[in-house]
Write a structure and sequence with these properties.
By secondary structure, the chain is α/β, with parallel strands linked by helices. Helices cover 18% and strands 30% of the residues. It binds adenosine monophosphate and magnesium ion.
Length: 414
């Protein structure tokens, strides 16, 4: 098939065709703290009650509820203090009628006691505690298993681990946890003009922004970047880098540059000769030139070379692929409603992703363009809170146009 015979796919179709090639990766067992933001690959049941024993919710006196039944301001009840119990210890004697035990929050209720009178509600005289009201059964007491029951399914597979799930795993006595492993994602920048950040600048050259922004995005979304550096625009150099990626056993290959219509756009050629190209081009701006295929079963996404295009294509297509391999199911970025502060014009029937910063004014969110929207203007991303989505069919936006804004990162300032 000739390149210009490839249809320009709508964003949703391109995305669906990419995601059809990804599955959650196999599980690995890791220390629970390393499990933050990872996805459980096992069902976690509790093998005990939590709390394990019925215990006091307050610092106070453990009593027999029946002993307090008639207590009032005018007819207080006096009980004999027979022991002192800190959290972490179990009392070796029962509480008999007429007795009370001084007890600290979390300490197991002594046998016979079934209510707790808090310190601030009682008076003490010598070895007696004086109660001024009745304490119904189980007042200020936490029951064994009231949080988690023995045998209960506490964390089902597929759950994303946050701080509370990690705390729960610790409470359940699990030092390690099974999660889907992180994808290893190769990152390759292409172009004779591209040099690394540490290389001395020379006329005609530009520094490799994409290799770093794409690697940072991989890290941000939970993958492991495998940096392959920069390949010049030759079939031989690119083919060698692809073989290197395969030898390293990566799960996904991301290239940038070399996928449009220029003389030296060799990524498509190498994809076709070493593997198979599934599609090319998406109906969007920035980011139209984009190739997807596979080499020896490893999916390859050829991101456009322009720094803004490569980042936006990553957010739309590579991000959900990485999340899928991690076992995540919520693949959409958050989207909010806003008013587009400046009208825009265009006529190319592509979906536009405008870089915007957000402002809250009079209870409304306004989306302002971050200046020049050229796909090479990386500063438009640096200043962006999100991407305002302009539908394909619209040639110009009326004033105060309501737009959906895909949030890149929640702004630090409200
Ligand atoms: P290409 O898609 O290879 O034609 O590249 C499109 C534009 O993006 C050209 O101006 C390239 O110089 C630029 N470009 C390509 N790769 C990178 C990169 N890694 N970092 C910054 N700019 C790049
Ligand atoms: Mg190029």
């Amino acid at each position: 098939m000739k390149y210009d015979e490839y249809p320009m796919l709508p964003v949703e179709e391109a995305r669906a065709r990419i995601l059809a090639n990804f599955r959650p990766l196999e599980p690995e067992t890791i220390p629970i703290l390393d499990g933050l933001d990872r996805v459980l690959a096992e069902d976690v049941y509790s093998d005990m009650d939590i709390p394990p024993l019925t215990n006091t919710a307050m610092d106070g006196y453990a009593v027999r509820s029946a002993d307090t039944a008639g207590a009032s301001e005018t007819h207080p009840v006096r009980l004999k203090i027979v022991a002192d119990l800190a959290a972490g210890y179990v009392l070796d004697r029962p509480v008999q009628a007429g007795e009370a035990v001084r007890i600290m929050t979390g300490a197991p209720m002594p046998e016979g006691a079934d209510a707790v009178a808090p310190f601030e509600q009682v008076e003490v005289e010598g070895d007696e505690v004086i109660l001024f009201k009745p304490y119904p059964q189980w007042k200020n007491v936490r029951h064994a298993g009231e949080d988690v029951r023995k045998g209960q399914l506490v964390l089902p597979r597929g759950k994303v681990l946050r701080a509370q799930e990690i705390g729960m795993l610790a409470a359940l006595g699990h030092p390690t946890v099974q999660v889907h492993r992180r994808p290893r994602v190769a990152v390759l920048s292409t172009g004779d003009e591209v040099i690394d950040v540490t290389d001395p600048w020379q006329p005609g050259k530009i520094r490799d922004a994409n290799g770093y922004s794409v690697s940072a995005l991989i890290l941000k979304y939970g993958g492991e970047p495998v940096r392959l550096g920069i390949a010049p625009d030759t079939i031989e150099a690119l083919t060698e880098k692809m073989r290197e990626a395969l030898d390293l056993g990566v799960d996904f290959i991301l290239t940038s540059g070399g996928v449009s219509m220029g003389d030296f756009d060799v990524v498509k050629k190498v994809l076709a000769s070493e593997g198979e190209m599934h599609f090319w081009r998406a109906r969007m701006k920035p980011g139209k030139p984009m190739a997807f295929g596979e080499i020896q079963g490893v999916p390859l996404l050829g991101l456009p070379g322009n720094p803004v295009s490569s980042m936006i294509s990553f957010e739309l297509f590579a991000r959900p692929a990485i999340l899928t391999m991690l076992g995540k199911k919520k693949l959409e970025k958050p989207v909010i409603d806003a008013i587009l502060a400046e009208p825009v014009k265009r006529k190319d029937n592509r979906r536009h992703y405008l870089r915007v910063w957000l402002e809250e004014k009079d209870g409304q969110t306004y989306a302002h363009l971050t200046g020049d929207q050229g796909s090479g203007i990386l500063l438009s991303m640096v200043q962006a809170d999100g991407l305002a989505i302009i539908p394909e069919e619209l040639n110009s936006t009326p004033p105060d146009f309501p737009v959906k804004v895909m949030i890149l990162d929640w702004p630090e300032v409200a």
